[in-house]
Amino acid sequence: MLDEIIKKAGVLLESLPYLRLFAGKTIVIKYGGSAMAREELKAGFAKDVTLLKYVGMNPVVVHGGGPQINKTLDRMGVKSKFVEGHRVSEGETLDVVEMVLVGKVNKEIVSLISAAGGKAVGLSGKDGGLIRAEKMVITKQTEDLGRPEIIDIGMVGKITRVNTSVLLALDKEDFIPVIAPVGAGEHGETYNINADTVAGEIAAALGAEKLVLLTDTPGIYGANKELVPSLDEKTIKEMIASGVISGGMLPKVAACLRALSAGVKKTHIIDGRVEHAVLLEIFTDTGVGTQIV
């Protein structure tokens, strides 16, 4: 019994340098994947975020909700369509996206953090003019036309501006912002935006200390299929060019590079299926997943 208690003291002492280093600093966390699907992981994530706030850090949560959106669309008999990883968002689909992200998923996360003892406030990018966006245009080279083909994916947004005043006001009152990745156009139109992209842009705008992306993989794998614990921008670009990094990892890496270019110190892609992955990344010497610096 005594040995176990001493081990716990050792864990606390290991975290001391990080408590000192990150006190008062902003940590932006993108929450998605299996971490949002399993009950024990959901409750654990809420406790992790609440702990960060209580020890003096400023966590900002940006969440996804793809599986929840798919389930709702399936029940309605609406087929989900994707182009280069982006959900085609128009008409009925866009309404469901906003309803599920803002009305269901966002409120559930806020409730879980509140149950863990934290003070959370749910927002979408439309609240307080937080996220301004414009229509994203995807082009594809085609030999038949002899020119790039423009692919219309509906109301999928590209961020043009982040207004941090609402987030700074919440932080001043010790609230934890929980943000749904929906933005507004110049004329009030609604845009669905990739959650990784939103997290990267918010981290950049806030000058965050860290950006942490929770995923359904242990991190980034190299050409030898082994997990790479740390990467820099030059190596990342080489891995993209060679096809080692592809598919759904591309927007995550792009979000990390965007944040780093704006002065964010470190970015992390970690496995959200691991219990308390956020705490393990921030408070231990080894960390988990892949850091991009």
Descriptive notes:
This protein is α/β, with parallel strands linked by helices and 293 residues long. It has a single domain (22-292), classed as Carbamate kinase (3-Layer(aba) Sandwich). The protein contains 9 helices and 16 strands. Helix 2 (39-54) packs across helix 4 (92-115) and helix 3 crosses helix 4 (92-115). The longest helix has 24 residues, at 92-115.
Molecular shape = globular
Based on CA atoms alone, the radius of gyration comes out at: 19 Å
Strand order of the main beta sheet, please? 5-10-2-1-13-15-16-14
- Element string (H = helix, E = strand): HEHEHEEHEEEEEHEEEHEEHHEHE
CATH class: Alpha Beta
Mean pLDDT: 90
- Tell me what portion of residues adopts beta-strand conformation: 15-25%
The CATH homologous superfamily is called Acetylglutamate kinase-like
The helix/strand class is alpha/beta
CATH architecture tag: 3-Layer(aba) Sandwich
Please describe the biggest sheet, giving its number of strands, its sense, and whether it closes into a barrel.
Answer: 8 strands, mixed
How much helix is in the residues?
Answer: 40-55%
Could you name the CATH topology? Carbamate kinase
Spans where pLDDT lies below 50 across 5 or more residues: none
